Amino acid sequence: MADDEENDPTAPFNELESFDSIWEALKWQQIKKRIPICFKKSLYNRYFFANLVYLFYAIGILVIDYDPWLNGSAEEVIEELVCICNDTLLVSNTTEIIKGDTETGISITNRMYLALAIIHLISASLYWWAWRDHRWNDLIMIPEYLNHIEAGLYLWGAIWYQYEEDDLFGYHTLALHKIETTAAFVELFASFGWIMSWYRTYTRAIGRGYTLDDPDTVAYLLTTLSSFIYIAYNIQILTHPEQYGSNTLYYNGDIIYFIGSVFYLWANLRDDGWLWWMPVSGQYGIAAGRIETGKPIKAGLPHVLMCGNDPCLTCCRKFTKRDIDNSVTPIDDNNIPKQV
């Protein structure tokens, strides 16, 4: 989505002021002039809030991965120490803290997974809501609908965590792996869809496009890479269920997923003008708005709608339309009886 319009004088690609160094760009005069403008743009930018929720979701996943009290590594260490000290009371207390409610069988980790799945669904809705200039049946909305399906599948899987069995080959455990594998494939299709959405909507200006100078390019490459890693992990678990719990390949996917969310937010800050203090294409002393590129700045490509302008209305008309014969039969004046 192009957050900047071609005629917006505060857009980064229309910047007319150049700086010779970062210290000149961060003078109080510049900060006082630019911060209110940037803050106002971010406040009314729907995409900014969607990226912020997306970042919190990625952070939550990393917390579960690397917090020893949540991933179970702390329990193993404490149990080893307690076995040495022969302190059975500490074992029971530690197990109760880590595993949570033993009566319901729902651990703190599973509750966090459920909360993150709900946040994921909220994030998907925010991304759909962010396309304010596009209709619901626009072509670029397809990955947003796939994102909702993916979030729904992960939410379904998070609910099934409470039925997880000790047997790695149990019904609920294998069904959970199948659900998460399906979600991983849907996420991969959505990732390619986001690349298509970016191509159709990004602003054709200097420093944007198929270049690593554009944070959007780095972001969608990383999220696509993380999708491939999730698929590889889930296929390994489906093939060898005994690796569940010991296979940590998805850790790499979670890290790349987090880095991608940071770049998405970084691109959003660039669009809102927060990065005025950074050099243009690695160089200070030039202004993006004064560079002659030979091509006009263009915010995306024309919209492409699925099934026409009004697919629902067209479908309803097909069902409600009746074949009415409106033809008129000509009247022969010679056959009309004359009145006497």
List strands and helices in order, with pairings.
Layout: H1 22-25, H2 28-43, H3 46-66, H4 68-71, H5 73-85, H6 88-99, H7 108-130, H8 142-160, H9 171-201, E1 203-204, H10 215-239, H11 249-271, E2 298-299, H12 311-320
Antiparallel strand pairs: 1-2
Keywords: Membrane, Transmembrane, Transmembrane helix
Describe this structure in words.
The chain is 59% helix and 1% strand. It is mainly α and 340 residues long. The protein has one domain (44-313). Strands 1-2 form a two-stranded antiparallel sheet. The longest helix is centred in the middle third of the chain and has 31 residues, at 171-201. It is elongated, with a radius of gyration of 29 Å. The termini are far apart. Mean pLDDT is 81; it is low at 87-105 and 322-329.
- The count of DSSP E runs of length 2 or more, i.e. the number of strands, is 2
Number of domains: 1
Write the H/E string, N to C: HHHHHHHHHEHHEH
| Spatial sequence of strands, sheet with the most strands | 1-2
Mean pLDDT: 81
Keywords: Membrane, Transmembrane, Transmembrane helix
Transmembrane segments: 43-64, 112-130, 142-161, 181-199, 219-237, 249-267
Q: How is this structure best summarized?
A:
This protein is an all-alpha fold and 340 residues long. The longest helix is centred in the middle third of the chain and has 31 residues, at 171-201.
Keywords:
single chain, 340 residues, mainly alpha, two-stranded antiparallel sheet, transmembrane, membrane, transmembrane helix
